[in-house]
Amino acid sequence: MTNGIDHHDGDPVTPDRIPAALTAGEFRYDDGATQTFTRSGTTTYVEGGQPTNGEWYVDDDGQFWSFWPPTERTRYELTWLVEDGRFSGLRFNGVGNDMTFIGRYREQSEQSEDLAILEQLNLDYIHSDENSDAKRFSEFLAEDFLTQTPGVTRNRDEYLEYIAKPRPIKDITLDDVRFRILGDVALIHGAVTYTIIATGERQDALYTDIYQKREGTWLCVAACAIAPGS
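RESULT FIELD:
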């Protein structure tokens, strides 16, 4: 995106460069919130794991606007953020107000690392579930962890006590999994099959696990499973 650009920190983003600058990557703000922009004019702002969807556009005068339904419409002057000799993000300077938001491009390597960690945690969760490994669970379950299966809600201590007992299932197979990283919160949606030991029958199940990055570490804060027999 920055190829061929010769600007300094604080220089304005020209109208012809605005779409490329906005869609070059995910922005992370100083408070931990993130934001993405698409070429089609949509934007998603995520704070505390809660996404808000809006729109953006450049008007006929080359001015950048954001619109958050139903009524919030704000004009910003965009300027380049240059740190250590490289383009690292944008400043969104509110026009007619004193608001300035600094968004830094989230490094692709950081996103890849987060995904790799979450993929391993997902596998660890499944393996620990099947093998009654309460010790491993204790290493990545948050102190305020809650889990729900049909008719049952358990906190962290209750779940660790429950999982330490012999499991009624075996041979868990991961059939499908989808990861959604929303800033410092991640959702893992999965589908598994497993064998019910008592009957030998194979059973399908769906689950959603929620992780939050706390002080640089991903911890599972909640889990929900539609899993007969588990």
